[in-house]
Amino acid sequence: TTRSSQIYESKLLSIGSPLFHFGSLLVIMGHVLGLFVPESWTRAAGMSDHIYHLQALLLGVPAGFATLIGI
After folding, report:
1. Model's pTM, two decimal places?
2. Which is nearest to 27 in space by CA: 60, 70, 66?
3. Nearest partner of 64 among 33, 27, 35, 30, judged by Cα
4. Label partner for 50 (CA 20 to 30 A): which of 15, 39, 60, 67?
């Protein structure tokens, strides 16, 4: 019935919408930080290129996955 499909859709949206919005926010923030944080700051913090890229993957992959699952 129509009522049962509305209830089902509401449950999906209650999970998917926050995942999509939270994931999108993290993805955007990650890109902004990656673009605007100078390399000299990461060097001063003692972060090598390998560690920089590793942390980008470890934080970016779950954010991207949450965005895709939320869609």
Report:
1. 0.76
2. 60
3. 27
4. 67
